[in-house]
Amino acid sequence: MADDCLFCRIASGEIPADIVHTDDEVVVFRDVNPQAPTHVLAIPRRHVASAHELGPDDGELLAALFNALRATADAEGLADGYRIVTNIGPAAGQSVEHLHLHLLGGRRLSWPPG
Ligand code: 5GP
Ligand code: ZN
């Protein structure tokens, strides 16, 4: 855990969040500034700065993240479709330096994003 990391502190329970799924590796919680009727963030409990830091040993973690998001999409009734996206670095708008996968759904999503 990185002491000064917001999402490490959410994962540890030190900072409250509206959590929709937890397991040994992953926490999924609602975004505080939702951009769609469903907007959640899936994070690893372990501090990883971004998806750019993932490597060949992280397959299990990636599977855990996507399993948690599939379960959340099912629970939220997003059978029509939804989007999973992760921003990497300042040019893409990453504002929290702890890997998070956004899941957005519940409205029509345009493409390409801005
Ligand atoms: P990024 O811009 O890094 O891709 O996404 C960071 C996301 O974290 C943003 O959508 C922002 O609304 C969300 N966020 C920032 N601080 C908090 C917080 O304290 N609690 C929750 N639940 N979400 C947060
Ligand atoms: Zn962290």
**Helix count, DSSP H or I runs of 4 or more residues:** 2
Give the quaternary arrangement of the chains.
single chain
Strand-and-helix sequence, N→C?
A: HEEEHEE
Rg, Å, rounded: 14 Å
Structure description:
The structure is a single chain. This protein has 114 residues and is an alpha+beta fold. The protein contains 2 helices and 5 strands, in the order αβββαββ. It has helices at residues 6-12, 59-75; strands at 19-22, 26-30, 38-44, 82-85, 101-105. It has a 5-stranded antiparallel β-sheet, covered by helices on one side. The structure holds guanosine-5'-monophosphate (5GP) and zinc ion (ZN). Zinc ion binds at residues 2, 5, 7-8, 47, 98.
Features:
alpha+beta, 2 helices, binds guanosine-5'-monophosphate, binds zinc ion
What's the topology here?
Layout: H1 6-12, E1 19-22, E2 26-30, E3 38-44, H2 59-75, E4 82-85, E5 101-105
Antiparallel strand pairs: 1-2, 2-3, 3-5, 4-5
The structure holds guanosine-5'-monophosphate and zinc ion (ZN).
Task: Compose a concise summary of this entry.
By secondary structure, the chain is an alpha+beta fold. The chain contains 2 helices and 5 strands, in the order H-E-E-E-H-E-E.
